[in-house]
Amino acid sequence: MPRLVVPLTDAKCDAAKPREKDFTLFDGQGLHLLVKRSGTRVWRMKYARPDGRAGLATFGNYPAVGLKMARTRRAEALELLAKGIDPVENTRQVKQNAEHARRHTFEAIAREWHAASAGKWKQHHAESVLRRLEAHIFFELGARPIAELKTRDLLGPLKKLEKRGTLDTANRMGQYIAKIMRFAVQQGHIDSNPAIDLRGATATRRVEHRPALPLERSPELLHRVDAYHGHPLTRIAVELSLLVFTRSSELRFARWEEIDFERALWTIPSKREAIEGVRYSFRGMKMETPHLVPLSRQALALVEQARHLTGRFDLVFAGTHNFWKPMSENTVNAALRRMGYDTKTEVCGHGFRAMACSALVESGLWSRDAVERQMSHQERNNVRAAYTHKAEHLPERRLMLQWWADYLDNCRTGFITPYEFAHPELASKKIAKLNQA
Questions:
Q1: Domain-by-domain residue ranges, the chain?
Q2: pLDDT tens-digit profile of 134-172?
Q3: Which CATH architecture describes the domain 106-198?
Q4: Residue among 377, 384, 389, 412 flagged as catalytic
Q5: Which fold has domain 213-437?
Q6: Which of 24, 79, 298, 338 has its CA 20 to 30 A from that of 346?
Q7: Set 104, 350, 393, 397: catalytic member
Q8: What does the H/E/C string look like for the chain?
Q9: Could you report the per-residue pLDDT of 275-320, keeping only the tens digit for each?
């Protein structure tokens, strides 16, 4: 028959004084107070583990843990044992999970993801990504354990950005969060990605294409460019931009060393030497590979004119006041505005690319590959890109850019469609009459 245990009282616990040897006061169901010779009093509980082995749990020291609290912890341990769970092992796992959560916050994992991804990015882009996360996400989510985050938690900072009207930033942050959470799954920190359902959760800004004049208005544009009386280098920049239809930064940051006059070829590098104090002056090609721009006779003549103005400097389009800095990014558009155009609704410098592309395609003369290569568009089909990324189509592109320059010259006397200019046989009186009919 088991020995009858008289439950302890607070008075008995308080009265328990140290002796020469450690001794125990029992409360029942395995709970007891161990009084050590040092004077320390410790709550413990003997129990049988689910596998039958003896177990011993420690609940803390008396009086920090009182009798009532010790009994509560005994009840919790017995409940776990009834479920086949070892209370000591459970406590260890809880502490381990808490430590894991403390070390694996959203910010900690985000920085790991950033470090792992930065090697594939340009430095300025890597810095920009981290700066945006610090500005918009870490304040709200950074200290949260990543394993505790739900879709609604991740959506919180995005909705705040959306409410402020910064829709592009909200969508970009949503993309970053999704990638960070996918990285957390891959690293074993979480089992599933709660950011999957963020897709479409925030509004998107309607895409606004850069304005470009319809080709029918080419004669008007050319006459206004010819009549422009501003700075000569500005007129050259506008006209050359129309002839070679590169991006603004590719033209503005051009160096004389990139121009090969003998071969009539401009080689835009993937990256340029940065100019101190000029933002993004290291930019070369957007697609990060060198780009060849054949120069038509008309384009080469313009470059020769520019050489008389800035040939003694490094930059082709050197600034008016500071020759070591390029002309302003607004120069071409400002000139178009002085010519009477609304650069937000009618035409802007970037719109020259759309005009040229439209004419080249409509002419029916040039292969898609040659046009796309000259536009320096990135091949979206990875399989196709593997075979065409080194194909320059340079001979065809030389003819193509000369054709485009000749077409513009022809339009100075009156508009003609690209297809008709490419097929002069269609201009006969008989076909013209049939078309009118």
A1: 10-85, 106-198, 213-437
A2: 999 998 898 898 888 999 999 999 998 888 888 888 899
A3: Orthogonal Bundle (1.10)
A4: 377
A5: hpI Integrase; Chain A (1.10.443)
A6: 298
A7: 350
A8: CCCCCCCCCHHHHHHCCCCCCCEEEEEECCEEEEECCCCCEEEEEEEECCCCCEEEEEEEEECCCCHHHHHHHHHHHHHHHHCCCCHHHHHHHHHHHHHHHHHCEHHHHHHHHHHHHHCCCCHHHHHHHHHHHHHHCHHHHCCCEHHHCCHHHHHHHHHHHHHCCCHHHHHHHHHHHHHHHHHHHHCCCCCCCCCHHHCCCCCCCCCCCCCCCCHHHHHHHHHHHHCCCCCHHHHHHHHHHHHHCCCHHHHHCCEHHHEECCCCEEEECCECCCCCCCCCCCECCCCCCCEEEECCHHHHHHHHHHHHHHCCCCECCECCCCCCCECCCCHHHHHHHHCCCCCCCCCCCCHHHHHHHHHHHHHCCCCHHHHHHHHCCCCCCHHHHHHHCCCCCHHHHHHHHHHHHHHHHHHCCCCCCHHHHHCHHHHCHHHHHHHHC
A9: 787 776 776 666 567 889 999 999 999 999 999 999 999 999 998 8
